[in-house]
Sequence to fold (374 residues):
Amino acid sequence: MNIHDALQVSALVAGGAALSASFAYLYTRYRHNTRWTTLAGVVTGLLLITTYPALSFAPLIGLFCSKAARSFRPTTIDSSEHNYMPPKQPHPPGEKASTPDISNLSELIGMEPVLEQMRDLAARLQMDARRKAGGLAPGESVGLNFVFTGSPGTGKTTVARILAKELFAAGAILRPEVIEVTRADLVGNVIGETERKTKAVFLSAIGALLFVDEAHALHGVNNDFGPVAIRTLMPLIENHRGQIAVVLAGYEEEMKALFRLDSGLARRFSTTIRFPDYDASQLAAIFQSKAHQAQFSLSDAASRYLEKLCVRLTEEKGSSFANARLMRTLLDAARTAHAARLHPIAATDRLDSELTVSDLKVAEQALQNMVTPD
Fold:
C-alpha cells in the first residue's frame, strides 16, 4: 500500500468516525422527532452511497452506538433535555420540619371555607410527622394532588402559593415553589410534541408544586391534543408519588367534564377545594384593602358608593365575573380618574391620595365599556 492509498484509507476512517459521532448526537438529541431522524438517516445514506460508498455505514454505526449507550447508562433524569434542576433538601440532616402555619389564609378576605379544609390538611400533615418521629407507622401518606374549583379571581393561585409554603414547612415537598403553567405550556401542535412538553414541565416541578391553571381547557374537542397531556400526566404522577404536589385549577362544571374524560383523575385527585364567589361586602373590603396597600383612601361618600356599586356588580354578574380581579381593575380605573382629576391643579406640598365618588363613577363607566365574553 502506497502513501496515497494509506492517506485515503485514513481519511475514510476519520470521516466515518466523525459522521458516526455526529449522527449519534443528532439521534440522542432529537430522538423524539422520529420522522426527522429517520429522514436524516435515509438522506445521509443515499448521499454517501452515491458519493463515498465506503462511508454509507456511518449513520448505522452512529445509531447503534447511541442506542447502546442509552441502554447501558443509569436511569436518571436528563437535566439538559428537560431543563430539570435537582431540588435541594429543605431541611439540614437531623432537623425536623416545622409545623404547618396557615395563618396567612386567615388574612385573606372570604377564605373561611378554604381555611377550614386547609386546617384539616395541616392537622393531618402534622400528625403524620409526629407519628413518624415517634416510631409509629403513619400509614399511607396524605395525597399531594388537589383540585381547585371556582370562578376567576377567587384566590386559587394565591392559595396555591400559600399551600406550597405549608407543604414545604411540613417536609412534604422539597422546595416552596409553585410552577404555574397553562394549556399552552403542555399542549403541542404536532404528534409527539404534547408528550414531550408535558413531561418536561412535570420533571421541572419535581420537589415543588405544579399548578395547572384553567386545567379544564385540556378537555379538548375533536382531534385536539389536550387529552394527551392528561394521559401523559397520569403515569408521571403515579411514578413520582410523594415527590411533587399537583394542583388542577378550573371552573366547577368544566372540571367535572374533564374528570369524566379519564377515570384515573378522580382516583389520583381525591381532594377538592371549592372557592366560592365573593359577595358584595367582601368585594368592597377587597377594594379597600388593595387601595390601602397602594396608599390610597376613600372618602366616606366614596365608601358608601363603593358598597352600592359592589351590590350592583354581584347582581348583574355573568359567567365570566372576575371577583377580586374585577376589584383590581376597578381600582386601576379609579386611580386613573383620580390622576386625571388632579393633574390640572397646581402642585402642592401635600399629595391628595383620596378617591372620591366622581373617581368611582368614572371607573364604573370604564368597566361598562370593557369587552367581556358575556
